[in-house]
Design a protein that fits this description.
Length: about 700
């Protein structure tokens, strides 16, 4: 019964598909509350591998094999079920092209993984399930619905313990957006998405499968550049793709076939670019090399047919009609391999050109007329895609999420309003009771007035004492600065004197370091303003972009000592009203802290973004991080939270305190986010000049 049941199930009517989908979803829903079962990768992996080998030759046979073999996994876990429905979804979507069944399996996949959306082990599987549904909806030309599921998949993916697995998900997602941009003829945008995807694979160097797919991405970048008219850039990326193909393992017959087929594809695309540059002979050579590889049995036969059509067009354009005719005859013998409507149209156009060259005007017109009709149908079908913009759609979806969050906040505010009303009622009751005991209250008020007067006198004396202390502290620091500078200068001169012993030089270097550190501490003391009224600030318009660029350029020289890299993440340039030197000091202090508390060869990122009427500057490092118990006092003067840098650099506990003072003087705020062992991000919010 098994085989006949599955065959009937997969070839039945729409009603049977709907019924099957309903039953599958009902069974999954019934199991949602059950205990999570363990996965069986030792059983599922061989089944998926074998089915994957069959799918390229006979997709239906691959599905039947998979459905027959999978029941050996008697109690499948969530990961096993994901592998099952993921394979079936891809099989029906990309090979059988039965989109209703593919959609059914995508829905089943989401239903299976939804209970585990927040599970670290299965979170990326849930995110992938949403992307799978987006793929099917995209194929059905339901583009906005597809974008919503793409966005849901992107937003639900969380970086877990396996950084490489997260990067692979993002790699696939970025390439998907690149394919959409390419289909919309936004070629440079497509190339940019592909480049971002490749950058994500740096931590997955040992993954052969993804490294193999990377050569295809490099080829796609070259194609995008070629369509954009940047033929030199295209040839550079074709070269990179071929270099990567040459480095791929070829231990098995299948690996050798896959590597050769990939090389043939690149040769065919290279030929097109050479032809665009007018290098006809070189283009013809590449076309022939590509065809010789991929027309072999088991290779990329459709690509060979596409390349043969390019060669036929080359012959037509160079007046070699007989050779073009021979190529088209071979193409028509295997034209059933064309599944892309664009390629079918190209074949019609080539045949029209050939008939016209042979003087058969009537037949040429027939081919050309059919070509025009198909082209009109294709452009009409593609018009909907060209009119969509997934970036705008993503922004709209985020706005909806923000709106829901705002509604939630309104509910909370409503609760607080009710609480405030109740509080007012209670206050009125208390006031009523207070009026009843007015006589006693008067006596207490008189006593309180006397106590307040004494308290004001005490506070005034304390404030005066505090100001005197600050003044004394700054006088002492100022008086210490000159002798410390002198010590530092004399020690420099003594170091340069010839004939000093190694012991003397070591002592002098210690004096230099100590005096330098004392000078930094004195500078911080002189800059600090503890409980002193601020002078009126002489503010001016300051460009955030230029301020950060200058700071990053300057600080890179310091970072070079630890082989660190400072990266500027550009945003829209805006201006703030500020004292340039003070804001410069804050940014430099945060960057120096990032350098100080980050290991060698790490990355520091400085950037900014607009948030309402504020600009938010961020300084992010990959350093040692700040423990929760130290965060509370990190901005206090002379804090006990100070620690040594990664190379033993000293910290005196005044830099962040001074930075907070400067930012608050400008009507802004400063805060941080940090995780021990991962890194720290400091944020500065300052009002824009337009506000």
């Amino acid at each position: 019964m098994g085989l006949s049941f599955f065959n009937g199930l997969f070839t039945g009517s729409n009603w049977s598909r709907t019924f099957f989908c309903f039953i599958a979803l009902w069974l999954i829903s019934a199991c949602k509350l059950s205990v999570k079962k363990p996965d069986h990768p030792d059983l599922t992996k061989p089944i998926i591998t074998r089915a994957g080998e069959l799918v390229g030759y006979d997709p239906i046979k691959a599905v039947v094999y998979f459905q027959t073999a999978f029941p050996i996994v008697r109690e499948p876990g969530p990961g096993d079920l994901f592998q099952k429905y993921f394979f079936l979804n891809k099989c029906y979507l990309w090979y059988i092209k039965d989109y209703p069944k593919a959609l059914c399996y995508a829905d089943t996949l989401i239903s299976v993984m939804e209970p585990y959306a927040d599970d670290r082990e299965y979170n990326l599987m849930y995110a992938t399930a949403n992307v799978c549904k987006g793929d099917v909806l995209f194929k059905q030309k339901r583009f906005n619905e597809a974008y919503s599921y793409f966005y849901k998949g992107k937003m639900s993916a969380k970086e877990g313990d396996d950084r490489c697995a997260y990067n692979k998900f993002q790699y696939d997602f970025q390439n998907k957006l690149a394919d959409v941009s390419y289909g919309q003829e936004r070629y440079l945008e497509a190339a940019a998405w592909h480049k971002r995807a490749i950058a994500l694979l740096d931590e997955c160097a040992g993954d052969t499968v993804y490294r193999y797919s990377e050569q295809g991405v490099l080829d796609n970048i070259a194609l995008a550049y070629s369509h954009a008219g940047l033929t030199d850039s295209a040839l550079v990326y074709y070269g990179k793709a071929l270099d990567m193909i040459a480095a791929m393992p070829q231990k098995t017959l299948r690996q050798k076939r896959d590597v050769d087929a990939a090389r043939g594809v690149v040769y065919g695309n290279q030929g097109s670019t050479y032809y665009d540059q007018g290098k006809v002979e070189l283009a013809e050579q590449k076309f022939k090399e590509s065809i010789a590889i991929n027309e072999q049995k088991g290779y990329a036969r459709e690509d060979a047919m596409i390349t043969r059509m390019k060669l036929a067009q080359l012959y037509m354009n160079t007046g070699r009609v007989a050779e073009a005719s021979a190529q088209l005859q071979m193409i028509k013998q295997g034209a059933d391999t064309f599944t892309d409507p664009k390629r079918q149209m190209e074949l019609l156009h080539a045949e029209a050109d050939l008939e016209e060259a042979n003087g058969n005007k009537q037949q040429a017109w027939a081919y050309l007329n059919e070509y025009i009709n198909r082209k009109n149908d294709y452009e009409a079908a593609n018009k909907k895609l060209m009119g969509t913009d997934f970036i705008n759609q993503f922004e709209l979806l985020q706005q909806k999420i923000d709106l829901k969050e705002a509604e939630k906040q309104n509910q909370i505010k409503t609760f607080y309003l009710i609480a405030a009303v109740l509080g007012c009622i209670m206050a009125m009751v208390i006031l009523y009771m207070a009026l009843k005991s007015r006589k006693e209250a008067k006596a207490h008020v008189k006593q309180s007035v006397q106590q307040n007067q004494k308290l004001e006198l005490t506070l005034g004396a304390l404030e005066k004492s505090n100001q005197e202390y600050v003044h004394l502290l700054q006088v002492v620091a100022h008086d210490l600065k000159n002798p410390i500078n002198a010590i530092y200068g004399i020690s420099n001169l003594m170091v340069e004197e010839p004939g000093r012993s190694a012991e003397d030089l070591e002592m002098l270097e210690m004096i230099q370091v100590s005096s330098k550190n004392m000078n930094i501490l004195i500078h911080d003391l002189l800059s600090a303003r503890i409980n002193v009224e601020h002078d009126e600030l002489q503010k001016e318009p300051v460009s955030i972009k230029r301020l950060l660029e200058e700071s990053v350029t300057l600080m890179q020289f310091i970072a070079d000592e630890k082989k660190q890299r400072i990266e500027l993440v550009n945003g829209d340039d805006e201006a703030i009203f500020a004292v340039r030197s003070r804001i410069w000091r804050v940014i430099n202090n945060l960057v120096i802290n990032a350098i100080k508390f980050s290991p060698a060869n790490s990355l520091i990122q400085a950037g900014w973004a607009i948030s309402g009427n504020d600009v938010v500057i961020s300084i992010k490092d990959e350093g040692i991080g700040i423990p929760d118990e130290l965060k509370e006092n990190i901005f206090q003067p002379l804090t006990t939270s100070k620690r040594q840098g990664t190379d033993g650099e000293q910290a005196y506990g005044l830099g962040l305190f001074i930075s907070r003072q400067i930012i608050e003087e400008h009507g802004g705020r400063i805060w941080l986010e940090s995780k021990v062992g991962v890194g720290t991000t400091f944020y500065i919010a300052l009002p824009l000049s337009r506000a």
